[in-house]
TrEMBL record:
E.C. number: 3.6.1.5
GO molecular function list: apyrase activity; ATP binding; GDP phosphatase activity; ribonucleoside triphosphate phosphatase activity; UDP phosphatase activity
GO-annotated biological processes: nucleoside diphosphate catabolic process
InterPro entries: GDA1_CD39_NTPase (IPR000407)
Quaternary structure note: Homodimer; disulfide-linked.
Source taxonomy: Eukaryota, Metazoa, Chordata, Craniata, Vertebrata
UniProt membrane topology term: Multi-pass membrane protein
Cofactor(s) needed for function: Ca(2+); Mg(2+)
Membrane-crossing residue ranges in chain numbering: 384-406
Top class in the EC scheme: hydrolase
Organism whose genome encodes this protein: Elachura formosa
Recorded GO CC terms: caveola
Record-stated family: Belongs to the GDA1/CD39 NTPase family.
Annotated positions binding ATP: 109-113
Protein name, entry field: Ectonucleoside triphosphate diphosphohydrolase 1
Length: 417
Protein backbone atom coordinates (compact mmCIF):
# COMPACT_ATOMS: atom_id res chain seq x y z
CA UNK A 1 0.00 0.00 0.00
CA UNK A 2 2.84 2.44 0.80
CA UNK A 3 4.63 1.45 -2.40
CA UNK A 4 1.47 2.12 -4.40
CA UNK A 5 1.12 5.52 -2.71
CA UNK A 6 4.71 6.36 -3.66
CA UNK A 7 3.96 5.55 -7.29
CA UNK A 8 0.63 7.39 -7.48
CA UNK A 9 1.51 10.56 -5.54
CA UNK A 10 4.10 12.85 -7.21
CA UNK A 11 7.38 12.72 -5.28
CA UNK A 12 7.36 16.50 -4.82
CA UNK A 13 4.17 16.13 -2.76
CA UNK A 14 5.24 13.19 -0.58
CA UNK A 15 6.29 15.27 2.44
CA UNK A 16 3.03 17.24 2.50
CA UNK A 17 0.79 14.18 2.10
CA UNK A 18 -0.70 13.18 5.48
CA UNK A 19 -0.97 9.51 6.42
CA UNK A 20 -3.36 8.31 9.13
CA UNK A 21 -3.79 4.83 10.56
CA UNK A 22 -6.89 3.67 12.39
CA UNK A 23 -7.25 0.16 13.82
CA UNK A 24 -10.67 -1.38 14.41
CA UNK A 25 -12.33 -4.31 16.19
CA UNK A 26 -9.53 -6.85 15.76
CA UNK A 27 -7.20 -4.54 17.66
CA UNK A 28 -9.92 -3.68 20.17
CA UNK A 29 -10.12 -7.38 20.97
CA UNK A 30 -6.34 -7.70 21.22
CA UNK A 31 -6.27 -4.74 23.60
CA UNK A 32 -8.84 -6.50 25.81
CA UNK A 33 -6.78 -9.69 25.71
CA UNK A 34 -3.28 -8.21 25.95
CA UNK A 35 -2.78 -4.44 26.26
CA UNK A 36 1.01 -4.59 25.89
CA UNK A 37 0.75 -6.69 22.72
CA UNK A 38 -1.66 -4.17 21.20
CA UNK A 39 0.70 -1.32 22.10
CA UNK A 40 3.63 -3.13 20.48
CA UNK A 41 1.65 -3.67 17.26
CA UNK A 42 0.75 0.02 17.04
CA UNK A 43 4.32 1.03 17.82
CA UNK A 44 5.75 -1.27 15.16
CA UNK A 45 3.29 -0.08 12.52
CA UNK A 46 3.96 3.52 13.51
CA UNK A 47 7.72 3.06 13.05
CA UNK A 48 7.16 1.60 9.60
CA UNK A 49 4.94 4.49 8.55
CA UNK A 50 7.38 7.07 9.93
CA UNK A 51 10.09 5.62 7.71
CA UNK A 52 7.95 6.33 4.64
CA UNK A 53 8.42 9.68 2.86
CA UNK A 54 4.96 10.91 3.89
CA UNK A 55 3.67 13.10 6.72
CA UNK A 56 2.67 10.44 9.26
CA UNK A 57 -0.03 11.77 11.61
CA UNK A 58 -0.21 8.89 14.08
CA UNK A 59 -1.86 5.50 14.63
CA UNK A 60 -4.60 4.67 17.10
CA UNK A 61 -7.38 2.20 17.83
CA UNK A 62 -10.72 3.82 17.03
CA UNK A 63 -13.86 3.08 19.03
CA UNK A 64 -16.75 1.04 17.68
CA UNK A 65 -18.93 4.14 17.76
CA UNK A 66 -16.38 6.03 15.66
CA UNK A 67 -16.19 3.15 13.19
CA UNK A 68 -19.96 3.25 12.72
CA UNK A 69 -20.03 7.03 12.36
CA UNK A 70 -17.19 7.11 9.82
CA UNK A 71 -18.95 4.49 7.69
CA UNK A 72 -22.10 6.63 7.73
CA UNK A 73 -20.11 9.71 6.72
CA UNK A 74 -18.42 7.80 3.89
CA UNK A 75 -21.51 6.54 2.11
CA UNK A 76 -23.44 9.79 2.47
CA UNK A 77 -20.46 11.81 1.27
CA UNK A 78 -20.03 9.58 -1.78
CA UNK A 79 -23.77 9.63 -2.51
CA UNK A 80 -23.74 13.43 -2.38
CA UNK A 81 -26.22 13.61 0.48
CA UNK A 82 -24.22 16.27 2.34
CA UNK A 83 -23.91 18.67 -0.58
CA UNK A 84 -25.72 21.93 -0.01
CA UNK A 85 -26.69 24.46 -2.66
CA UNK A 86 -27.60 28.10 -2.35
CA UNK A 87 -30.06 30.49 -3.90
CA UNK A 88 -33.01 29.33 -5.94
CA UNK A 89 -31.43 25.87 -6.39
CA UNK A 90 -31.88 25.22 -2.65
CA UNK A 91 -35.66 25.22 -3.10
CA UNK A 92 -35.47 22.62 -5.87
CA UNK A 93 -33.01 20.62 -3.79
CA UNK A 94 -35.40 20.43 -0.85
CA UNK A 95 -38.40 19.64 -3.03
CA UNK A 96 -36.60 16.60 -4.41
CA UNK A 97 -35.68 15.43 -0.87
CA UNK A 98 -32.08 14.97 -1.97
CA UNK A 99 -30.87 15.97 1.47
CA UNK A 100 -32.12 12.72 3.04
CA UNK A 101 -29.29 10.54 4.33
CA UNK A 102 -28.77 6.80 4.03
CA UNK A 103 -28.12 4.52 6.98
CA UNK A 104 -24.92 2.48 7.21
CA UNK A 105 -24.56 -1.23 7.98
CA UNK A 106 -20.99 -2.44 8.48
CA UNK A 107 -19.84 -6.00 9.10
CA UNK A 108 -16.25 -6.98 9.77
CA UNK A 109 -14.62 -10.06 11.18
CA UNK A 110 -14.87 -8.97 14.82
CA UNK A 111 -17.70 -6.41 15.02
CA UNK A 112 -20.76 -5.00 13.30
CA UNK A 113 -22.19 -1.47 13.31
CA UNK A 114 -25.55 0.10 12.51
CA UNK A 115 -25.81 3.88 12.05
CA UNK A 116 -28.67 6.02 10.76
CA UNK A 117 -30.66 9.21 11.26
CA UNK A 118 -34.08 8.58 12.79
CA UNK A 119 -36.83 11.13 13.23
CA UNK A 120 -38.07 9.01 16.14
CA UNK A 121 -34.77 9.00 18.02
CA UNK A 122 -35.53 9.47 21.72
CA UNK A 123 -33.35 10.38 24.69
CA UNK A 124 -33.64 6.87 26.16
CA UNK A 125 -30.07 5.90 25.32
CA UNK A 126 -27.85 8.99 24.87
CA UNK A 127 -24.69 6.87 24.69
CA UNK A 128 -25.89 5.65 21.27
CA UNK A 129 -26.37 9.14 19.85
CA UNK A 130 -23.95 11.37 17.96
CA UNK A 131 -24.41 14.90 16.67
CA UNK A 132 -22.88 16.29 13.51
CA UNK A 133 -23.10 19.68 11.86
CA UNK A 134 -22.15 19.37 8.21
CA UNK A 135 -22.58 22.06 5.54
CA UNK A 136 -24.73 24.09 7.91
CA UNK A 137 -27.14 21.25 8.68
CA UNK A 138 -27.54 19.37 11.98
CA UNK A 139 -27.68 15.57 12.05
CA UNK A 140 -28.70 13.54 15.08
CA UNK A 141 -27.40 10.04 14.43
CA UNK A 142 -28.07 6.73 16.15
CA UNK A 143 -25.10 4.36 16.16
CA UNK A 144 -24.06 1.21 17.96
CA UNK A 145 -21.18 -1.21 17.53
CA UNK A 146 -21.47 -4.85 18.60
CA UNK A 147 -18.05 -6.24 19.47
CA UNK A 148 -17.74 -10.02 18.96
CA UNK A 149 -20.57 -9.98 16.40
CA UNK A 150 -18.46 -9.72 13.27
CA UNK A 151 -18.84 -12.81 11.11
CA UNK A 152 -15.63 -14.52 12.27
CA UNK A 153 -16.20 -13.95 15.98
CA UNK A 154 -19.87 -14.86 15.63
CA UNK A 155 -18.77 -18.24 14.26
CA UNK A 156 -16.44 -18.67 17.24
CA UNK A 157 -19.30 -17.79 19.60
CA UNK A 158 -21.59 -20.31 17.92
CA UNK A 159 -19.01 -23.09 18.17
CA UNK A 160 -18.40 -22.24 21.84
CA UNK A 161 -22.13 -22.48 22.53
CA UNK A 162 -22.25 -25.80 20.70
CA UNK A 163 -19.41 -27.06 22.89
CA UNK A 164 -21.22 -25.87 26.02
CA UNK A 165 -24.18 -27.97 24.99
CA UNK A 166 -22.12 -31.19 24.75
CA UNK A 167 -22.65 -33.69 27.57
CA UNK A 168 -19.13 -35.07 27.80
CA UNK A 169 -17.08 -34.51 30.97
CA UNK A 170 -13.59 -35.12 32.26
CA UNK A 171 -14.53 -38.63 33.51
CA UNK A 172 -14.87 -39.71 29.88
CA UNK A 173 -11.21 -38.90 29.19
CA UNK A 174 -9.88 -42.47 29.27
CA UNK A 175 -12.62 -43.67 26.96
CA UNK A 176 -12.30 -40.74 24.55
CA UNK A 177 -11.97 -41.54 20.86
CA UNK A 178 -11.67 -39.39 17.76
CA UNK A 179 -15.25 -40.20 16.89
CA UNK A 180 -16.86 -38.92 20.08
CA UNK A 181 -14.74 -35.76 20.09
CA UNK A 182 -16.38 -34.69 16.86
CA UNK A 183 -19.06 -32.03 16.64
CA UNK A 184 -21.72 -32.13 13.90
CA UNK A 185 -22.27 -28.62 12.54
CA UNK A 186 -25.22 -27.70 10.29
CA UNK A 187 -23.52 -24.47 9.18
CA UNK A 188 -20.80 -26.28 7.21
CA UNK A 189 -21.34 -28.25 4.00
CA UNK A 190 -21.96 -31.98 4.25
CA UNK A 191 -18.63 -33.75 3.85
CA UNK A 192 -16.56 -30.88 5.24
CA UNK A 193 -14.26 -31.48 8.22
CA UNK A 194 -12.15 -29.11 10.32
CA UNK A 195 -9.95 -29.52 13.39
CA UNK A 196 -9.88 -26.92 16.20
CA UNK A 197 -7.33 -26.72 19.01
CA UNK A 198 -9.35 -26.30 22.20
CA UNK A 199 -6.59 -24.43 24.07
CA UNK A 200 -6.47 -21.69 21.43
CA UNK A 201 -10.21 -21.57 21.05
CA UNK A 202 -11.02 -20.23 24.52
CA UNK A 203 -8.23 -17.63 24.64
CA UNK A 204 -10.43 -15.37 22.57
CA UNK A 205 -12.23 -12.63 24.62
CA UNK A 206 -15.41 -13.42 22.68
CA UNK A 207 -15.45 -17.05 23.85
CA UNK A 208 -13.55 -17.01 27.16
CA UNK A 209 -16.78 -16.71 29.18
CA UNK A 210 -17.99 -19.99 27.66
CA UNK A 211 -14.87 -21.96 28.61
CA UNK A 212 -15.52 -25.57 29.51
CA UNK A 213 -13.30 -28.37 30.75
CA UNK A 214 -13.12 -30.94 27.97
CA UNK A 215 -11.50 -34.40 27.96
CA UNK A 216 -9.81 -33.82 24.60
CA UNK A 217 -7.43 -31.22 23.17
CA UNK A 218 -8.82 -31.12 19.66
CA UNK A 219 -12.31 -30.86 18.27
CA UNK A 220 -13.29 -32.31 14.90
CA UNK A 221 -16.09 -30.44 13.18
CA UNK A 222 -18.18 -32.38 10.67
CA UNK A 223 -20.46 -30.47 8.34
CA UNK A 224 -24.13 -31.33 7.91
CA UNK A 225 -25.28 -28.64 5.45
CA UNK A 226 -28.63 -27.97 7.09
CA UNK A 227 -29.65 -24.32 6.73
CA UNK A 228 -32.67 -24.49 9.04
CA UNK A 229 -30.69 -26.01 11.91
CA UNK A 230 -27.90 -23.54 11.25
CA UNK A 231 -30.33 -20.63 11.61
CA UNK A 232 -31.67 -22.08 14.86
CA UNK A 233 -28.14 -22.23 16.27
CA UNK A 234 -27.27 -18.71 15.12
CA UNK A 235 -30.40 -17.17 16.61
CA UNK A 236 -29.22 -18.24 20.07
CA UNK A 237 -26.44 -15.65 19.75
CA UNK A 238 -29.00 -12.83 19.95
CA UNK A 239 -30.50 -12.30 23.38
CA UNK A 240 -33.97 -10.88 22.75
CA UNK A 241 -35.43 -11.63 26.18
CA UNK A 242 -34.59 -8.40 28.00
CA UNK A 243 -35.23 -4.90 26.64
CA UNK A 244 -35.17 -1.98 29.11
CA UNK A 245 -36.15 0.50 26.37
CA UNK A 246 -39.17 1.10 24.15
CA UNK A 247 -37.49 -1.00 21.43
CA UNK A 248 -34.26 -2.97 21.17
CA UNK A 249 -32.04 -4.74 18.68
CA UNK A 250 -30.51 -7.50 20.85
CA UNK A 251 -28.61 -7.92 24.11
CA UNK A 252 -30.71 -5.12 25.64
CA UNK A 253 -29.40 -2.42 23.28
CA UNK A 254 -31.74 0.42 22.29
CA UNK A 255 -32.75 0.60 18.62
CA UNK A 256 -35.08 3.32 17.28
CA UNK A 257 -37.43 2.57 14.36
CA UNK A 258 -35.54 1.98 11.12
CA UNK A 259 -35.79 4.79 8.62
CA UNK A 260 -34.73 5.32 5.00
CA UNK A 261 -32.41 3.30 2.80
CA UNK A 262 -29.32 1.54 4.15
CA UNK A 263 -25.98 0.90 2.53
CA UNK A 264 -24.54 -2.45 3.69
CA UNK A 265 -20.82 -2.78 3.03
CA UNK A 266 -17.61 -4.61 3.96
CA UNK A 267 -18.41 -8.29 4.72
CA UNK A 268 -22.13 -7.68 4.14
CA UNK A 269 -21.22 -6.96 0.52
CA UNK A 270 -18.41 -9.51 0.08
CA UNK A 271 -20.53 -12.44 1.26
CA UNK A 272 -23.70 -11.44 -0.59
CA UNK A 273 -21.72 -10.68 -3.74
CA UNK A 274 -20.18 -14.17 -3.64
CA UNK A 275 -23.70 -15.59 -3.38
CA UNK A 276 -24.80 -13.35 -6.28
CA UNK A 277 -27.35 -11.54 -4.10
CA UNK A 278 -26.30 -7.92 -4.61
CA UNK A 279 -28.77 -7.09 -7.38
CA UNK A 280 -28.95 -3.32 -8.00
CA UNK A 281 -30.73 -1.00 -8.57
CA UNK A 282 -33.58 -3.39 -7.70
CA UNK A 283 -32.69 -5.42 -4.57
CA UNK A 284 -33.92 -9.00 -4.42
CA UNK A 285 -36.85 -9.95 -2.22
CA UNK A 286 -36.07 -11.53 1.15
CA UNK A 287 -37.57 -14.92 0.22
CA UNK A 288 -35.31 -15.10 -2.84
CA UNK A 289 -32.25 -14.29 -0.74
CA UNK A 290 -33.20 -16.91 1.85
CA UNK A 291 -33.82 -19.67 -0.69
CA UNK A 292 -30.51 -18.96 -2.44
CA UNK A 293 -28.49 -19.26 0.77
CA UNK A 294 -30.41 -22.38 1.80
CA UNK A 295 -29.66 -24.01 -1.56
CA UNK A 296 -25.97 -23.11 -1.31
CA UNK A 297 -25.68 -24.63 2.18
CA UNK A 298 -27.29 -27.86 0.95
CA UNK A 299 -24.59 -28.44 -1.70
CA UNK A 300 -22.04 -31.16 -0.81
CA UNK A 301 -18.59 -29.90 0.10
CA UNK A 302 -16.86 -31.72 -2.74
CA UNK A 303 -19.19 -30.08 -5.26
CA UNK A 304 -18.61 -26.62 -3.79
CA UNK A 305 -14.85 -27.13 -3.65
CA UNK A 306 -14.79 -28.16 -7.31
CA UNK A 307 -16.92 -25.21 -8.41
CA UNK A 308 -14.80 -22.61 -6.60
CA UNK A 309 -11.23 -23.86 -6.97
CA UNK A 310 -9.83 -20.31 -6.92
CA UNK A 311 -11.02 -19.61 -3.35
CA UNK A 312 -9.09 -20.77 -0.27
CA UNK A 313 -10.88 -23.62 1.48
CA UNK A 314 -11.08 -21.85 4.85
CA UNK A 315 -12.95 -18.90 3.36
CA UNK A 316 -15.05 -21.04 1.02
CA UNK A 317 -16.15 -23.34 3.83
CA UNK A 318 -17.55 -20.41 5.86
CA UNK A 319 -19.79 -18.80 3.22
CA UNK A 320 -22.74 -20.94 4.27
CA UNK A 321 -22.44 -19.80 7.89
CA UNK A 322 -21.73 -16.19 6.87
CA UNK A 323 -24.77 -16.01 4.59
CA UNK A 324 -27.04 -17.50 7.26
CA UNK A 325 -25.52 -15.22 9.90
CA UNK A 326 -26.07 -12.08 7.81
CA UNK A 327 -29.74 -12.96 7.37
CA UNK A 328 -30.17 -13.63 11.08
CA UNK A 329 -28.31 -10.46 12.07
CA UNK A 330 -30.40 -8.27 9.77
CA UNK A 331 -33.72 -9.93 10.61
CA UNK A 332 -33.40 -10.95 14.26
CA UNK A 333 -30.75 -8.45 15.28
CA UNK A 334 -31.59 -5.26 13.41
CA UNK A 335 -35.31 -5.90 12.91
CA UNK A 336 -35.48 -5.80 9.10
CA UNK A 337 -38.52 -7.62 7.69
CA UNK A 338 -39.77 -8.67 4.27
CA UNK A 339 -41.60 -5.30 4.16
CA UNK A 340 -38.44 -3.19 4.42
CA UNK A 341 -35.77 -5.65 3.25
CA UNK A 342 -35.41 -3.86 -0.07
CA UNK A 343 -34.29 -0.75 1.79
CA UNK A 344 -30.93 -2.54 2.08
CA UNK A 345 -28.42 -1.98 -0.72
CA UNK A 346 -25.28 -4.11 -0.64
CA UNK A 347 -22.45 -1.81 -1.73
CA UNK A 348 -18.87 -2.61 -2.66
CA UNK A 349 -18.10 0.69 -4.31
CA UNK A 350 -19.88 4.00 -4.78
CA UNK A 351 -18.58 5.39 -8.03
CA UNK A 352 -14.89 4.50 -8.02
CA UNK A 353 -14.49 4.68 -4.22
CA UNK A 354 -14.75 1.84 -1.71
CA UNK A 355 -17.68 1.90 0.67
CA UNK A 356 -16.35 1.66 4.23
CA UNK A 357 -15.25 3.64 7.26
CA UNK A 358 -11.78 4.66 6.06
CA UNK A 359 -12.82 7.57 3.83
CA UNK A 360 -15.03 8.99 6.58
CA UNK A 361 -12.10 8.71 8.99
CA UNK A 362 -9.89 10.71 6.65
CA UNK A 363 -12.59 13.31 5.92
CA UNK A 364 -13.07 13.86 9.64
CA UNK A 365 -9.36 14.16 10.46
CA UNK A 366 -8.68 16.57 7.60
CA UNK A 367 -11.84 18.66 8.17
CA UNK A 368 -12.76 18.31 4.50
CA UNK A 369 -16.47 18.52 5.32
CA UNK A 370 -17.09 21.99 6.82
CA UNK A 371 -19.54 22.51 9.67
CA UNK A 372 -21.04 25.54 7.97
CA UNK A 373 -22.21 25.87 4.40
CA UNK A 374 -19.43 27.49 2.35
CA UNK A 375 -20.21 30.70 0.49
CA UNK A 376 -21.52 30.01 -2.97
CA UNK A 377 -19.12 30.59 -5.87
CA UNK A 378 -19.57 33.79 -7.94
CA UNK A 379 -21.56 33.52 -11.16
CA UNK A 380 -19.62 32.68 -14.27
CA UNK A 381 -19.37 35.33 -16.98
CA UNK A 382 -21.94 33.54 -19.15
CA UNK A 383 -24.40 33.16 -16.27
CA UNK A 384 -23.94 36.82 -15.32
CA UNK A 385 -24.64 38.02 -18.89
CA UNK A 386 -27.68 35.76 -19.16
CA UNK A 387 -29.08 37.02 -15.87
CA UNK A 388 -28.57 40.65 -16.92
CA UNK A 389 -30.34 40.06 -20.26
CA UNK A 390 -33.26 38.41 -18.46
CA UNK A 391 -33.55 41.30 -15.98
CA UNK A 392 -33.39 43.82 -18.83
CA UNK A 393 -36.20 42.08 -20.73
CA UNK A 394 -38.36 42.00 -17.62
CA UNK A 395 -37.70 45.71 -16.97
CA UNK A 396 -38.53 46.69 -20.58
CA UNK A 397 -41.74 44.65 -20.44
CA UNK A 398 -42.84 46.38 -17.23
CA UNK A 399 -42.09 49.85 -18.63
CA UNK A 400 -43.93 49.10 -21.88
CA UNK A 401 -46.97 47.85 -19.99
CA UNK A 402 -46.99 50.96 -17.81
CA UNK A 403 -46.72 53.27 -20.86
CA UNK A 404 -49.64 51.52 -22.57
CA UNK A 405 -51.70 51.70 -19.40
CA UNK A 406 -51.34 55.48 -19.03
CA UNK A 407 -51.33 56.44 -22.74
CA UNK A 408 -54.38 54.64 -24.11
CA UNK A 409 -55.82 55.90 -27.47
CA UNK A 410 -58.78 58.31 -27.04
CA UNK A 411 -61.12 56.00 -28.93
CA UNK A 412 -60.48 53.29 -26.39
CA UNK A 413 -60.98 55.72 -23.53
CA UNK A 414 -64.37 56.88 -24.97
CA UNK A 415 -65.45 53.29 -25.46
CA UNK A 416 -64.65 52.56 -21.87
CA UNK A 417 -66.59 55.62 -20.70
Amino acid sequence: CLQQAKEVIPSAQHKETPVYLGATAGMRLLRLQNQSAADKVLSSVGNTLRSAPFNFQGARIITGQEEGAYGWITINYLLGNFKQVSGWKKLLHSLKSLSETSGALDLGGASTQITFVSKDLSSESPENQLYFRLYGKDYQVYTHSFLCYGKDQALQQKLARDLQATKCNSLDFYFQTVENSSLPDPCFHKGYERTINISDFFKNPCTSDKKKQLPFSQLYIKGEGDYQKCQENIQKLFNKSNCPYSSCSFNGIYLPPLQGDFGAFSAFYFVMNFLNLTSEPNPLALNKVTSTIESFCARPWQEVKTAYKHIKEKYLSEYCFSGAYILSLLENGYEFTENNWQMIHFLGKIGSSDAGWTLGYMLNLTNMIPAEEPAGPPLSHGSYVGLMVLCSLVLVSVLLFAWLLFHKPKCLQKGIV
